[in-house]
Records
---
Amino acid sequence: MRFAAVFERTSTGWSAYAPDLPGLGVAGDTMDETRQLLREAIEMHIEDLRATGQPIPSVASQADYVEVALPA
């Protein structure tokens, strides 16, 4: 599965979450570390959902950039 991920710079590094998996978030020192932590957290979350007989949320979110022209 492929989940959208949002990464945000913090005062101490990076944080990230997957909008389709409410309550799941991670924080790390670098973007690469945070990406790996999020991947591992998603995998563990999915495993837990399966183990407890809960449905796996469908992937509904998408991420993209929107360009805007700023006034001079």
Note: The helical segments are 31-51.
---
Amino acid sequence: MNFAIGIDLGATSIKLVAVNEAGIVLERRTEHTTEMAWAENIRTMLDAVESGIGAAATWIGLAAPGLAARDHRAIAFMPKRLKGLEGLDWTNFLARSNTVTVLNDAQAALYGEHWLGAAASFENAILLTLGTGVGGAILSRGQLMTGTIGRAGHLGHICLDPNAPKDIVNIPGSIEMLMGDYSVVARSQGLFHSTKELVEAHLAGNQKATEIWMKAVFALSCAIASLINVLDPEAVIIGGGISHAGDALFEPLQKFMNDVEWRPGGHCVKIIPAQLGDWAGAFGAARFAMRHERKITTAFTK
């Protein structure tokens, strides 16, 4: 039996999915990301799933934050997070004869959404993952846009306020700083400690929470409108934990888009939620591993 295992290594959790070429899930597992043991935890999870299925995976793919190496065997660059991730060759670490492919987590999420989710019917789309930080990926003419060194698609790091402090990649006033969960404490002067807490207060009628939340959503709308002008997509797909805010996010976002989006001839770009939720990266990692084996590295061939 041929099947792939996709692993999504995040700052707070590790997700693993075993899936066949038809997209049928054989098994899923999730564990917390522990600071010193995440690599060993992945090895343990992988062994347990293969033992339960009774066969070794035909393909293994891993998604993680950072820039993937050109040979897709490691994350080549990931500053300040997940110490030990940079340069870790997963094929060697997991002692596999076939290459364990590695892909940026947001790019993997779009890969998964194009295979089985919200982007399945599009050839040109943008994905924004709103979570601890803000990730992104670009689908252009049915292919994943990676750029010269794999940096393309880091949409969370475009500048919206040149006078604001710099983010992790030295960009001042980025979407990540204005919308990411990690900056809520600073943006609210310590009033709120997570986006979930902020949104709940907004929905409960807290005027200060509403002010902070609407400022963030307006910034997001400006960023999306700017990206639309650059990339001209069919759709913008919103994923990540903050997207779970549902109408509290999408209703004001659409209202702001009505004000700031350029719509020649009345054309309106669709803004839709991701369908695979927190599992998009794991599915994308699995699918990328399947396609990489056939030497189709960045094309979304189905």
Note: The two ends are 19 Å apart (CA to CA).
---
Amino acid sequence: MSQPTYIDDFTRQFAITPGDTALVIVDLQYASGSREHGLGRLLAAQGRLADAEYRFARIDRLVVPNSRRLAEAFRSMGAPVIYLTYGARLPDFSDAPIHLKAWMKAIDNRVGTREHEIVDELKPLPGELVLNKTTMGGFASTGIESHLRGMGIANIVVTGVSTNNCVSMTAMEACDRQFGVVVVSDATGTCSDEMQESTLKTFRRLWGRVMDTSEVIEEMNAHAS
């Protein structure tokens, strides 16, 4: 943990409780979270799968297991678990934004493909909200804000991939909409330690809180009735 700085005096403090906090799991799909599908299959065909070893190893060892652990804890406390996916809804990818269209096409990330599905280890339970986005941030293209308001949610805990893209964008959008936001350090992942740590360092400055899985569960349990 880095030493406190002057900016910490101005970073919002809030507590997470089962009554007003939801878990939001971001983009843990086969498209970019599996060695055998999507990105993994593309890189393997190019002979470059080793380039993504950090990413896939972190997803396998930390991101998926800790996201599952958090989901189970939230469910046991009666707190909502919400899933965000990303990918084109239309088969020709014409609804994908220009800056993401080539990426979605390359890994065949569109509704109806295996790539678009959430990984089996984290499948949503019946009745849990799953929202698809075509943008990096979840708030720009899913209507998640109205769902959260309707559910009485004031805070969200965010896990998933990639920390420096869809996770942080969703988290920052939520902060700008007055939600308290926690990014889970050991349940998020990207392509290097440098990207991971720099993103978390940025988020700590005026945006929200960074906690690990055990800290989140402990604080939620402490406020459980």
Note: The radius of gyration is 17 Å.
---
Amino acid sequence: MSRLRVGWILPASFALGLLLGLLPLPEWMQPLRPYWLALVLAYWVIEAPDNVGLGLAFVVGVVADLMYGGLLGEQALRLVIMTFLLQRFRTRLRFFPLSQQALAVGVLLLNDRIVATAIHFSLGLPLLPLAYWWAPLLGMLLWPPLFVLMDALRMGKRK
């Protein structure tokens, strides 16, 4: 695999993750929006840890905070925590079957919701409605197809 191939796929995947977070959805679907940026970040931390780390997670999180108009630093903190946990357990996660990886990613997305709730609670901001707790489950279900798609893009077609 050439460096050029990873070179354009990495930023393009983060840009797509940011754009999917901005995609307008009907009101009833808002709670089910998966955290696309976290899913993309999880893929890159597991598959290309030399290219993605805590610094990139922080920068992407700040960019997401600016784009989404939320509390500055909230998504950066959430993504850094997720990246730290993924880096800590990367060697184990990498060799899990895809179904077990999906469970682990689902737990990480649930942990992300808990961190977001703790931030909102500590600052006295309104908490997310209960319906928003379904998004980690949807992210867990989307992990296998997203992983396969991104792996195919990263590795290219083999002959």
Note: Residues 32 and 135 are 5 Å apart (CA to CA).
